[in-house]
């Protein structure tokens, strides 16, 4: 007596439908993130301004990766730096010559984040979560 193996495979139509559902869910997630971003960013910037003025550090809740320049003894090289989750950043000022905002972490390390990257960086801090939670509560 031979054993008969029956493979339970989905039809091509079902596979295409599953793929379409995955794409749709990914698009909905991206749209929700973009909506949160657009809704929260102005308030995040305002809250950051208040905290910076009062010299209150902000906590990093998602890694912040940014481009910077490091000096290797002879010249400057472009490199990527990361502020890890859990670090706190204190705003120190703006470097006008390089258009960078200077932050200092709890270990005294300075992070020079380009003005063009600051929105993304702020959205990786507790400020975004505070604003988003507040707006979500108001929506209920």
Main attributes?
single chain, 140 residues, alpha+beta, four-stranded antiparallel sheet, two-stranded antiparallel ribbon, 6 strands, 44% helix
- Strand line-up in the sheet with most strands: 1-4-5-6
Largest sheet: 4 strands, antiparallel
Shape: extended
The rounded Rg comes to 23 Å
User: Which stretches are poorly predicted, pLDDT < 50 over at least 5 residues?
Assistant: none
Run of helices and strands: HEEEEEEHH
Bin the strand percentage. Answer: 25-35%
Oligomer: single chain
DSSP helix fraction: 40-55%
Going by helix content, strand content and strand pairing, the class is alpha+beta
Number of strands: 6
The total count of helices amounts to 3
Average pLDDT confidence is: 85
End-to-end Cα distance, whole Å, is 64 Å
Number of domains: 1
